[in-house]
Design brief:
single chain; 74 residues; mainly alpha; 434 Repressor (Amino-terminal Domain); 5 helices; 0% strand; globular
Length: 74
């Protein structure tokens, strides 16, 4: 699973709309939809923000690992 599938799955599993997640990232809904559809690559800072929001580590949200670990404490 790559990052675009992972961010969509996380959003759907939590019953969030694309608009809600777009607001968290301070972007438009269409831009966020482009991230999920793979039309636009998601910036690393947005991926980090989503990882913190969903409390998952970067390896999981980026699709590198299927093991769901919590986001590291600061």
């Amino acid at each position: 699973m790559d990052y675009k599938d992972r961010i969509r799955a996380l959003r759907e599993d939590n019953d969030y709309t694309q608009t809600k997640i777009a607001n968290i990232l301070n972007i438009g809904q269409r831009t966020y939809a482009d991230y999920e559809y793979g039309k636009t690559r998601i910036p690393v800072d947005a991926l980090i923000k989503l990882a913190k929001f969903y409390d998952v580590d970067m390896n999981y949200i980026s699709g590198v690992s299927n093991k769901r670990n919590k986001f590291p404490a600061e």
